[in-house]
Amino acid sequence: MTRRLKSFTGIEFLYLVGIVAISFSSIFVRWSEADVAVIAMYRLYLTNVLLLPFVWKYRSSLFRLSKRQWGWLAVSGAMLALHFLLWMASLRYTTVASSTVILTLEPLMVMLGSYWLFRAKANAMMLWGMGIAIAGSIVIGAGDFQLSGTALYGDALSFFGTIAVALHMLIGKKLREGIDAFPYNFWVFAFAASFLAVYNVAQGNAFTGYEASEWGIFLLLAIIPTLFGHYLFNWLLKYMNATAVSMSVLGEPVIASLLAWLLLKESLTAYQLGAGVFILFGVWLFLRYGEKSNRSVPASES
């Protein structure tokens, strides 16, 4: 991704790729029988293994960081680890639609945080777009919400996981102003995976002995939702405001619910499909009228 993007259309395409990619995450987690902390840990470690061939190219920028940047990278990684731990665990207690719809609170949290930290403002049309998308997301997950039992516990895990990823996005936006995409992603993934490794040791979770199919799922998680999802979104933070990037989660319930219907046989009504159209329209509206607020694309990017 070293070539300069000359139009917002190019960014929109990559943005769409990221939405589709992260939507596969819930499916892969459902397929795995490993502990969610183990899944998240290997997902991130394997991502960095895949990035190793590029380490030599970026060797200077990987270590040319201040103590303050190292500290915030660790905090960002901790928030990403907490997000994966809580959100992945939620999928064991509630449906994909219900869990992913709660993630739609992320752009609201990021928007408020962006205004407070960066004085980033959203115009009326952007707010309308966000509102339409969130309303559609609520419709998709409303039929699965329950106020008791394991479903409520799963929804609570998803909610706190959403707070964690919102903080991760805000920290990332600030760090990406001074750190290129590769070192930022590499170290954040490394910190997050290491925090999860410590957690797994404390919980007594096994690091080995998994079937080949489980390792295949770990690898799929590393390639599709992490490299083509999280890495891509962290890269886009250089070109888009944090709220716009976080709006990607509003498209996830649509794609994830369709995938869950096709691959996991979870129910999906025409009513929910119609809501999906509203979500995508709302996301488009937000991005379309938020284009002017995005910074100009720099001449080069790592």
From TrEMBL:
The protein in question is named DMT family transporter
Pfam families per record: EamA
**What parts of the sequence cross the membrane?**
12-31, 37-58, 70-90, 96-118, 125-145, 151-172, 184-203, 215-237, 244-264, 270-287
Q: What keywords is this UniProt entry annotated with? A: Membrane, Transmembrane, Transmembrane helix
The Swiss-Prot or TrEMBL record describes its family as follows: Belongs to the EamA transporter family.
Give the main localization category.
membrane
Instruction: Output the Gene Ontology cellular-component terms.
Output: membrane
Q: Output the superkingdom of the source species.
A: Bacteria
Q: Where is the EamA domain?
A: 13-140, 153-287
* Membrane topology of the entry: Multi-pass membrane protein
Lineage of source species: Bacteria, Bacillati, Bacillota, Bacilli, Bacillales
Subcellular location per the Swiss-Prot or TrEMBL entry: Endomembrane system
